[in-house]
Structures
1.
Amino acid sequence: MTAYPTVPAYITVCHGWEERFKEHPVWAWMFEFSEAFDRGNLKSTPFAKNPYHTADFTYNFNGAVTTGGEAAWNASLQVYGPFTEHFHEPAFVVIFETAVGYELIGIANLFANLPVPGEQTKVDLSGKKWDIGAPGCFHFKFINDATGSRGLKMSEQNLYGDGLTLVAPMVQRGMITAEQAFTGLPKA
């Protein structure tokens, strides 16, 4: 049998944002970032004042890659633009150290509400009902940076999931056409 070089990893199944995971610096960073993004005012904060991302931040959503800090941040905001409210609920996480910081690979459920009323059939772990509930895979890269939150900044964000799960309720509620669902969402 061939031996392969390995690095220690923090691996856990989680049931949402369990406080016990804050012991890891990257997971503590994610708690803070997710609160600022999902419930706080991070989305309206100018990129230059964003303590979470590097100036050369890269964003990848299902293979559509945007580079260049502010442009990448704006691309990430566009994905969440159709939602009036959203929440990420982690389910599985692997974190390992790199030469420049850390990487995090995980699975989380994205819950979201739409501006057009409809039946809320998706339920998060707290029991709250949502218009949309979809699993996704996340891969983040962090660099050590004293100017960042908790000494870290995200340099790359890769998201993978079933986009149709997100847009099907928008089509059903008349927010977009089926053609738009297959050719790209309108700009938020």
2.
Amino acid sequence: MTDLHLAAESGSVDIIKLLLDKGMSVNLTNTHGFTPLHISAGFGNLEATKTLIHRGAALNNVNKCGDTPLTLASRRGHLEICRFLTEISADITIRNA
């Protein structure tokens, strides 16, 4: 897991901004295809999720398990993140098989 993924997991917005400012890709995937947005949404970190989106994170990326950030947030009960993602046009038709 990269430093950006760890910052997304812990909700460390300042570290996310620093890493992105230093050139790290906002859509960097780990070995399982998780982007930092998958991680922040799945762990319920709303401010980190918003920061990643505002910095250009791909909203509907599907990881190797077939999950989008929205499906992860939904499965884990993070309703505020689900609301935010759907308000900014996350694709609600993508289903994990």
3.
Amino acid sequence: MRAPRKKRGQRTAAPVISARLNERVTLVSQPDGAIVAAFDGYAVELGRFSASLAKRVQPLRTGLPINSLASSRNAVDRELALLVRRLAKSGLLEYRLAPLRSDKDLVIIEPQMADYWPQAAKLAATDTVVLSRFAYLRRRGTDMVLESPRSAALFRIADPNVAATIAVLSTPHKIGRLRREQGFAGLALLGLLLDCQILFKLDAKHERLRWAEGDAGLAVWDFHDLLFHTHSTEGRHATPVGGSYPHIGLIPPPPAVRARWNGPEIDLQKFTAEFEETASPFARLLRERHSTRDFDEEHPITLQELAKLLDHAVRVQWKWTSPLDFGDGSVGPDIDYTRRPYPSAGSAYELELYLSVSHCDGLERGFYFYDAERHTLVAIDARAHEIEAQLVAAQFAMDAPMRPQILITIAARFDRVAWKYSAIAYSLILKDVGVLLQTLYLTATDLGLGGCAIGTGNIDLFARMTGQAFHVEGPVGQFALGRGASVGDSG
């Protein structure tokens, strides 16, 4: 007797990538044809479009396959594609990966950079892929998200099979083998993760995964350092940055001065009561230091004053080379060192200065690198709108009435510190930044100039202006400089 024939299981539809509006965004059509995106009390005008487009934008609430935007059969199709691209550039879209007619998502992709557009990289059955050592899964509210400081987007996991696939990829796997796994999440997802550098390909020669991923500049980074760098600055994530007072209503404002310890006290005031009569010039300088956010546009800083500040605060004083001594009689390679006016961890002096000049008597508006060894300014061919973007962002960060006359961006050559130090490299860099900022403050005060430290900077903008990969050399601090107006605020 012949056994009954097994029924073939229904074939699962391949997932597709669709664009949809962020849930906080509403599209509003104006009588003049303008379409405005409204969100969180803000409005972004996206341009004027035909009346016929209004009916076509409805699927953006649930998901519009991005493949459909590639065709330009008629004018309305082209308008729709333009509108979607403008929404994407403003960071107002998210993307779902799911079978076309399914209401069940596999993942939701949230852009972390304004120019992100989902692209599924091509993969062959013979390719070997593995999870980046910078990728991590975490709980965010009630969601599970997959992200990486190298990635232009994060992935909100909506299907347990996706999480299982990610766990499997902690070790290298060939695509052909993965496709045979039960619950395989699909090539489209792997291609998206590869494009976002959450996965990477291995060749046959790979031995050490750390060196197989990226370049030598990436290899020196520890996971926590790169995560802290990208998420404590602007440019590579979509989380709000700056003074947003996120804990109002949850905890009271912490006091300015710590509560007293109970215990015997030793009064020091009698030793410092005669400060005004006996203070040294340096002690007076420390007390005169303050933050200046208002600059005198009629009497800008001069090139001579800028040269003096750079000479006194950051210029290389001398240079030498010494072999690395391990302390046990063995020696390593020769290492170059410099001496500069401020201290630096391990004498690394990894910090470099880049100047965005808005208004300086004797120096053209532009973007410059300060060569601390030769004491020269080197012009860098940055676009005018990029320089303006830096200056405007600095003005906003300071809550100032005008742009700084000169914006000094402090960048770090990360490998200079990470080549020696494990686990604490980025921490040491930030300590060096704090010391350099105080040195710039005191030098500016001594020269009769005004300055103000700025708490953040856009690492992606800086990378575009310099052509440097964000993980090779990037901003870790900023300082606004100029001639202070008659009235300034202190801090």
4.
Amino acid sequence: MAQDAVLQRSVNIHLACVSFNISEKCYRYQSKLKDKNALIAAKLVELTDENRDWGFGICFAYLRHVAQYRWNHKRIYRIYCELALNLRIKPKRTPVIRCDNGPEFISHQFTDWAKDKGIRIEYIQPGNHQQNAYIERYNRTVRYSWLSQNLFDTLEEVQDYATKWLWHYNHERPHQANQGKPPLMVA
């Protein structure tokens, strides 16, 4: 209001500050973080435009571990929310190890190894692939990240795009299991 009074009504700065009960320091204050906040906003918009299924966690992990920015997570989250980039939060489920009935998972070596490690194996019902959530999670990532967002004319286009996406998935996309780092950065 003091700035409006000074700009529109040609009121003296000192008089405007006294009238609105603020200090002249407060009136003259310029945020030093505006440029950095604009850079953070630009990076977040760029990331979410390229990867529409990325939420805050993956965006933050990418900026911290892949792009090597050292911005505070609270600051990035505040800007992320201001830009209304929020995704719906899904509850996490604790894993039980499930696998299908393929020959590699029903061998005695595998079951003996799991028994020695104290791991319980649950086999899905034959023909019911929805019960194998881990591979289905990967399939969902593939489906939402690029299959449902692109139209392909030839099988070669699909293979080229899949190769590029797989490289991005392994080299740049942060994974929660690796503390937010891509798999090949950890390996």
